[in-house]
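ok trying again, last paste got cut off:
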Amino acid sequence: MAEDQDPADTGTDAPKETRAIKDRNQRIREEAAQKRKARRDHEQRRANVQRNLGAGELVDDALARGTHAATGWLKRHLNVIQWVVVVGAAGGIGWQIYSAHKHKTEAKATDSLMVGVAAEFGRVGDEDEADIDPSTGLDDARPHFKDEAARLKAAADGYRAASGSDAVRTLADLGLAGVLYDSGQFKDALATYDKVKQSALAQKDSDVRLRALEGTGLAHEALGDKDVARKAFHELGNSDVTLFSALGLFQEARLAFAAGERDAAKDLLKKALDKVTKDESAEHPPSYVSSAARELLATIDPSAVPPMPSRNAEQSQAGPGSANGKMQLSKEKIEELMRQLKEHPPAPAPSGAPAGKP
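nice, full thing came through this time. structure:
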């Protein structure tokens, strides 16, 4: 019977390694049991204490235990928290330095672009004295040039020297294209307008894209490609931006009128005016497109030109009591005025002149 017994189940005859493993496992089980018992005892004591606490004391107890747990967590992870604070502070400082550098770079790029803009809108004349604005008393700070050629050359040089981001360079190219067109360099202007149309900024900014589109049409027209120019203006007229759409219709109507297509030009001008006259009023005068379209339409058919908005026209439609721009007094109003006149007669005329006469 003793011969069949496993040596690991015996006492002294079992191998030392087996006894060590069994002792360790037993010790681990005992420690786990002690931890479970300590946890149960702690929960039991806390439950016994909470039974005798009021509502306010329960809140205080919860806050105290939460504070104790938070304090313990902070102590255990103090090194990690310190590194997080240091990294955050360093990142914040780095971001401020980067933002300041970026803003400074953008400001320099904008300044370089404005050199060309200022030259393009500079003053031309013999006198180098700045005109004074009578309403503000301030001098005209625009640069002065002796002739148009000097102004256009300075503007072109300013736009070519502009530096900065791709967006700034695209805006500079758009300004340069206009200067080249004004200088009569139509091929170079067309190439520059095409460059702007293909830029990333033009794909995102409809204003840049549509201005470049109009420029290509004008350049093609100046080069004698009237059909290509008309297609460009037709595309501009189909845009979703009201003002640019009306501008495209006007430009297409202008080419149609030059080609002898008076009826087609008339229809295009009426469409252009329908788009821009909706917001016109006495407080909002007509735009350039509206004025130019009215002028051209008056050449074709004066009766088709819509009336200009005016205060007199608004007063003539003021409602009851008015007709043809003159106030109409009711019978009751006339009687009221006569009664007031009897109660308060006019003062005698000065210098012995007869009353009621000048």
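cool. Residues 1-9, 312-329, 345-358 have pLDDT under 50 and may be disordered. DSSP finds 14 helices and four strands in the chain.
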